[in-house]
Design goal:
The chain is an all-alpha fold. It has helices at about 1-20, 25-110. The protein contains two helices and no strands.
Amino acid sequence: MFNFISGFTFLVLIAIKNIQVMENGYIILGLVALLFLSIYGFSYISVAREKMIQKQLQQKELEKAQLRRQARIKSQELIDERVRKFNERKEEIQHELMLLKKMKEKQKVS
């Protein structure tokens, strides 16, 4: 950045030295304005780049959060499926125990 500005300033100083000040004041004023605009543009580019990088990082974080959320939902579905199967098996066992109990009572009665 410093080399760019100092080089540009050097060119402006050479232009000022070679041009008569009274006749070409607008040219000098334009060169000074161009100098300040270039400095402003150079500083704004770095700010814009930082904003762009920040936005990209934020987008990556959102994608990571979404992937974590989807993984959590998938694992919860697996857990729910296992619990459902466990409960079905539990009901089957209870039903079988009840049938065995009835058969035992029939044998005692007869």
